[in-house]
Specification:
Blueprint (H helix, E strand, L loop, with lengths): L3 E7 L4 E7 L3 E8 L8 H13 L3 E7 L10 H5 L8 E7 L18 H11 L2
Parallel strand pairs: 1-4, 4-5
Antiparallel strand pairs: 1-2, 2-3
Length: 124
């Protein structure tokens, strides 16, 4: 069983999700709506990936301080449930210096900032 890391980064226009096994193997990359439609959506997403991969997910909710101001329920919901048998979830301040690149041709965009953050967290 390999380590499974997932970064969830809410923003005013989209929530980016990146899941990796190891430092270079991306298994999931997605742009979702800014706020989930159901209170258990984030927990269910983490659980589903854990069940699919057969490994506990180490999740990181990546939020910059100023992003708490936009109207997303994701951050408020996350602090109700920090984990269970299939996942753990930590709040991590996103690096303000990370520059987002324009969306790529596939429409999902670049996730370099989240990839670097996961590598740093996995190395701890």
């Amino acid at each position: 069983m390999s380590n499974l890391w997932m970064a969830i980064s809410p923003g005013p226009h989209a929530t980016r999700v990146l899941a990796m096994t190891g430092p270079r193997d991306t298994i999931l990359k997605a742009c979702l709506a800014p706020s989930p439609a159901h209170p258990r959506a984030m927990a269910t997403l983490l659980e589903a990936v854990a069940l699919w991969q057969g490994s506990k997910v180490h999740g990181a909710l990546c939020v910059a301080e100023r992003e708490w101001e936009f109207d997303s329920s994701l951050s408020r919901e996350a602090f109700v449930d920090f984990g269970g048998p299939l996942y753990s979830l930590d709040w991590i301040a996103r690096d303000q210096r990370a520059q987002r690149r324009p969306r790529d041709l596939a429409g999902v965009g670049e996730f370099g900032d989240l990839r670097r953050m996961l590598r740093n967290e996995a190395g701890r």
